[in-house]
Amino acid sequence: MIRNIQVRVGLKEEGQEGILMRKAAQNLGISENDFTIKVLRKSIDARKKTIYFNYKLTAYIKEKAPESSTYSFAYKDVSKAKPIHIIGFGPAGMWAALRCLELGFRPIVLERGKNVQDRRRDIKAINQDHIVNENSNYCFGEGGAGTYSDGKLYTRSLKRGDVRRIFESLVHHGATEHILIDAHPHIGTNKLPKIVQNIRETILRHGGEVHFNTKVIDLIIEHNELKTIVLQNGNELQVSRVILATGHSARDIFYLLQKKNIALKAKSFAMGVRVEHPQQIIDSIQYHCKGERDELLPAASYSLVQQVKNRGVYSFCMCPGGFIVPAATSPGEVVVNGMSPSKRNNLFANSGIVVEINVEEDLPKYEKYGVLKGLEYQKDLERLAFTSGGRTQTAPAQRLTDFVEGILSSDLNPTSYQPGLKSAPLHSLLPRSIGSRLRTGFAEFGKKMKGYYTSEANIVGVESRTSSPVNIPRNEQLEHPEIKGLFPCGEGGGYAGGIVSAAMDGERCAEAAVAGL
User: Fold this and answer.
1) What is the 3-state secondary structure (H, E, C) of 404-420?
2) What global pTM score does this model have?
3) Cα dihedral sign for 173, 177, 183, 189?
4) Which one of 12, 258, 324, 388 is at 20 to 30 Å from 382 when CA atoms are compared?
């Protein structure tokens, strides 16, 4: 007999050996010798001073729990199979390629950036020397922006595909099985590169191809059908199906599509700043503790949202025990993002705090740019951050309370941001539609989380790459409605918002691309 049950374990009980079996036996009313258990989900309830761990368990009564996953990945030898070309090797491109292997088609991946090992040099260069490589940075290269990130796997996109399948695929390629259990799973920036490399090796081992330093600069279309891809080195590739998975920061692709008169749409998005607190402050708020949090508790996170003047102001990509990184993709811009190692053991907590941008109502001065008006607005804020930060990767910053009160900070708090911070009046530099809403939002967040609104926190600008400001349309078959053979995919197409949703969209696009071949 199989039964699903839920048990609560107090913080003081959590470290006790055999506590789950004892709790389960009490719940079932039978002896511990009569069943085995499997943990399905683990979460923390810290709403009150008494903290509990909530477990969802499957109890196997009078039988043993299964030892292995019910998921299997039957990758085929596709070395002589029909090709599917995939532009971009972020989460959408990786899982599109993996799905092609299962379906019996040969993925040919074209990635503008470098492999994970070689990317490290360029990431070091942007952090230490303020040098931005346009094709190899925190956004571009093997694994995309997801490689050097927290590896947050939480998603609300439960109707877009099989979330568990993506998690199992990650475990298959080296992720810990904890991601199958944790309510808010993450992998960690220190572990993701090896998993990404394992995925590449799976593709190569089964006959697929992955080409780095291979930038697509043109698409040749005949009679509304994509026929040829032109590479930066001058080579041309004949194609029949192309999955376009270039990510939300590949602006040259949007410009190329516009130049080719391929239909695009302006898309609403969000922009703002990164806020960074000492992790201990967030722990004390969320866990109701003084001093260090209990060693059984992970670094605390938060999720905040407030409506201000008919626009949402909300936390985005919250990184407990993490650090802020420079995510620029071109010289002359400053962009910040956040990430965490697997242990989330850094001294700081950071999160994007962003404001909704309605492209139909909020950008009247950018109408001349048509469907790319949101992209141009992004670029202007990133140039502003570059100039106000001192024209390097040093980022403009302000103490949180000074920002809200409209005061230039005489000094700044310590930070995890390696290129460094420069005091700047972000309260007056940011567009009023963003800055005024952020100021109100931060004040309201301080009421919701007592201690959040503090002079010990910095805000750092700008957080501008939350999602794509452009949508590449597609029909019910996931194909561009005007260009046969082109399948817009993932965050770059406007169809995903994180690692898991992008991976699921990659699988769906692979299935659509091979249909009829």
Assistant:
1) HHCCCCCCCCCCCCCCC
2) 0.95
3) negative
4) 258
- Residues 342-353: pLDDT tens digits? 999 999 999 999
Contacts of 453 (CB under 8 A, 6+ apart): 400, 401, 404, 442, 443, 445, 446, 447
User: Long-range CB contacts (< 8 A, 24+ apart) of 169-176?
Assistant: 169/71, 169/73, 169/95, 169/98, 169/503, 170/195, 171/69, 172/71, 172/73, 173/198, 173/199, 173/202, 174/198
Q: Pairing between strand 242-244 and 311-326? A: unpaired
Structure tokens at 361: 């109502």
As a whole number of angstroms, the distance between CA 430 and CA 498 comes to: 26
Give per-residue pLDDT as tens, 379-406.
999 999 999 999 999 999 999 999 999 9
Rounded to 10 degrees, what is the CA torsion of 265, 270, 272, 273? -110
Give 38's contacts (C-beta < 8 A, 6+ positions apart): 57, 58, 60, 65, 66
Say what the pLDDT of residue 3 is: 96
Strand partners, 38: 58
Determine contact, residues 26/59, Cβ cutoff 8 Å: no
